[in-house]
Design goal:
It is a single chain. With about 170 residues, the protein is mainly alpha-helical. It is about 60% helix and about 5% strand. The protein has a two-stranded antiparallel sheet with strand order 1-2. Strand 1 and strand 2 form a beta hairpin. Helix 2 packs antiparallel against helix 4. The two termini are about 30 Å apart. The N terminus is likely disordered.
Amino acid sequence: MNMDKTGSDSAVNDIDKDAIHIVVRETIDKTQQLLQKAKDQVEKSLDIFVSTAAQYLGPVIGIYASTFTRLNCSSIDEFLDLFKRHFNDMGVQDLYDELIESESDWDTWLKTIDSRLKEQVASEIAVGIPAPLNLTLTDAKTSQQCSLQDFVSEESLVMVFLRHSA
């Protein structure tokens, strides 16, 4: 890795504003297309979206990984430094604003989905209501399905549901 006088990777410094425009434009377009597909699926069925969310959310990671690779960035700081170095260009400023707006669109939409899911669960679960023993659970690693009943015995059952947000 070649470092310049500031300690930055010189490969990052070699990226010009045209490359930033091309790569980041593709990133915005691809992530917005995924967002629209996800929104369309939720309109059809929130439950199906929840069970297939990885097909919408997972690719965003790949899109950003590709963006970082193509722009020779190994961290978010290096990525942001690219914008800083070219921020005197109005096109780069506008592109940065679009990228932030695109990320905000995702954040806002996911918060809306989260709220809908919380409302749905809150209306279904309360103290004293029998557990939904026929509830289908899916092992995240193996994709094997089982029911909550499979875990119930004559002894008490304590379950902790964790939610992972990358």
